[in-house]
Structure to design on (383 residues):
């Protein structure tokens, strides 16, 4: 059985080990070592990556007590230098230990249980079994960061059965056999198999990003340590760019955006009114006819386009409006008060290389035929 060095020292990144076996698997070559500091996926945390000799380790999993390192090449039996991707492991430990701090404080203050946890490269999610308000969650976040500042010790150990039976600890499921406990002094005690930091000061900032209702409880997204710093840097860069675009101070961009949206809403109203007026003027250019009227335009809004088709439909058999260009293609709205357009849609689409449908009075869709082809077809067609 492989000796699990990650249980002895979570900060062990370089070690040597003996290759006991190597066989080809679905994802690559599966290598078993006599001892390993590579953590296999478990407890909501992803597996470590790194190298064994010259072989690149992309995944690690445990099957039947055997820890298999998935590598990009085979290795002969022998002793090899091994190295874990340090930055990736450290960030995952920061996030996972931060999650324990956050969940432990939420449990102490509000009695919630952590019923789901998943860690990904972009963020991690926590599921609590009942809802908490944003104010309550912000209170937990603040106290979690106070716990980081206090730099209290984090201890991971396997208690004896008698000691374990007397312990109160958090666990998402019933456990049997040896149980590993991660204890954060005065803050949390939880069953967990993953590597953790040695003291809360290593976690760095704990930042709550979002909270949403989920299965009767709440799902949170959280970032800790360097991942939280990277997220803050990206948001600061975005805030700086928006600040420059709006000529507003960074702490005043919200009211600046609100003013911009108000102005945009006013402009949209004016544009809508102008577009409706344009549709009315355009309709007056066409005399009543027993045939069809076909119009091409590039500026009408959706509402004014339908208004134009309705007005033209009073003057002809079929009113067809095409919005766009030959280069980019056309969106069409076709209306009639005399013809069952739904019944004619297949024929129309075939003639104009289009697709679409709708009601008897109006159909909508897209077309790729040229304006010349479309105009010619509607000029000569009688419905």
């Amino acid at each position: 059985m492989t000796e699990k060095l990650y249980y002895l020292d979570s900060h062990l990144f370089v070690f040597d080990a003996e290759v006991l076996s190597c066989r080809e698997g679905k994802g690559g070559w599966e290598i078993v070592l006599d001892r390993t500091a590579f953590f296999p996926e478990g407890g909501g945390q992803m597996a470590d990556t790194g190298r064994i000799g010259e072989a690149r380790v992309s995944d690690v999993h445990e099957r039947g007590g055997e820890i298999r390192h998935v590598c990009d090449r085979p290795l002969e039996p022998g002793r090899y230098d091994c190295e874990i991707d340090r930055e990736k492991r450290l960030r995952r430990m920061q996030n996972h230990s931060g999650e324990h701090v956050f969940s432990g404080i939420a449990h102490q203050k509000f009695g919630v249980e952590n019923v789901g946890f998943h860690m990904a490269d972009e963020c991690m999610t926590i599921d609590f079994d009942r809802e908490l308000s944003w104010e309550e969650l912000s209170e937990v976040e603040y106290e979690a960061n106070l716990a980081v500042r206090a730099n209290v010790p984090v201890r991971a150990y396997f208690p004896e059965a008698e000691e374990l039976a007397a312990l109160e600890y958090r666990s998402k499921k019933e456990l049997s056999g040896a149980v590993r406990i991660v204890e954060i002094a005065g803050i949390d005690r939880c069953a967990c198999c993953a590597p953790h930091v040695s003291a809360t000061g290593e976690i760095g900032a704990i930042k709550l990003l979002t909270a949403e209702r989920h299965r009767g409880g709440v799902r949170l997204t959280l970032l800790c340590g360097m991942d939280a710093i990277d997220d803050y840097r990206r948001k600061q860069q975005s805030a700086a760019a928006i600040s420059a675009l709006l000529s507003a101070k960074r702490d005043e961009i919200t009211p600046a955006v609100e003013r911009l949206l108000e102005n945009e809403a006013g402009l949209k109203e004016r544009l809508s009114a102008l577009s409706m007026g344009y549709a009315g003027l355009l309709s007056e250019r066409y005399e009543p006819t027993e045939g069809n009227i076909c119009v091409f335009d590039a500026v009408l809004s959706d509402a004014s386009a339908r208004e134009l088709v309705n007005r033209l439909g009073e003057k002809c058999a079929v009113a067809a409006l095409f919005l766009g260009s030959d280069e980019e293609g056309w969106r069409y709205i076709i209306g009639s008060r005399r013809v069952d357009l739904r019944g004619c849609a297949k024929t129309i689409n075939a003639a104009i290389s289009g697709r679409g449908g709708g009601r008897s009075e109006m159909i909508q869709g897209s077309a790729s035929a040229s304006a010349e082809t479309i105009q010619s077809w509607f000029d000569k067609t009688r419905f």
Notes: The two ends are 82 Å apart (CA to CA). Residues 253-283 form the longest helix (31 residues).
